[in-house]
Specification:
The chain is an alpha/beta fold and 181 residues long. The chain has 5 helices and 7 strands. Helix 4 runs antiparallel to helix 5 (138-157). 14% of the residues are buried.
């Protein structure tokens, strides 16, 4: 999930494959939801019809879902990150370099997601574990996962105001993002 998240943030092509149309739609929507508060501004097609498979060779970034019947047609794509939802694998081609999160944030996010998805890991090594560990409901788990990613964005974007540069040449001041800072 973190590879797909980073691929979407760094504007790579992402293709979901599954034999279930519902799973394709859910996975595409979930990836967009994890990017909140940012909005994905490129091509987004949760279920691509067979007649439009040639769209996969577009040079622009996308998030597209394709039924697994057409998996053979997707094998020749060299610059597309392919997530097989039925097999549970993510294939990143050699020519694609996905910039991951900076190291302290990456490890913290992995640990936080792991605690949400498998809370028993937190007490697995204790000599005297508590008698009961309650798993969160699906609705609560969804909120906890969203909170992990929202916290990640807060940590990534903290201090962004130091990068703002005010230009006062015009009658109205213009605020620009200064990349070097």
């Amino acid at each position: 999930v973190l590879y797909l998240f980073c691929a979407a943030l760094t504007e790579h092509k992402i293709l979901f494959l599954s034999s279930s149309y519902q799973r394709l739609t859910d996975a595409c929507r979930a990836l967009l939801a994890l990017m909140f508060p940012l909005k994905y501004s490129f091509t987004y097609v949760p279920i691509l019809p067979a007649q439009l498979l040639e769209v996969l060779s577009t040079p622009t970034p996308f998030i597209i879902g394709v039924h697994s019947i057409f998996q053979a047609e997707t094998q020749e794509l060299l610059d597309v990150v392919i997530a097989d939802l039925d097999g549970g694998t993510v294939n990143v081609p050699e020519c694609v370099h996905i910039s991951l999160l900076p190291e302290p944030l990456l490890q913290q996010t992995r640990e936080a997601l792991s605690m949400v998805l498998d809370p028993e890991l937190e007490v697995a090594d204790l000599a005297f574990p508590p008698s009961t560990i309650s798993a969160s409901s699906l609705k609560m788990q969804d909120k906890e996962i969203r909170a992990v990613f929202l916290r990640l964005f807060a940590q990534l974007l903290q201090g962004y105001r130091w990068c703002l540069h005010i230009i006062r040449i015009h009658p109205e001041p213009v605020i620009r993002f200064h990349k070097v800072r």
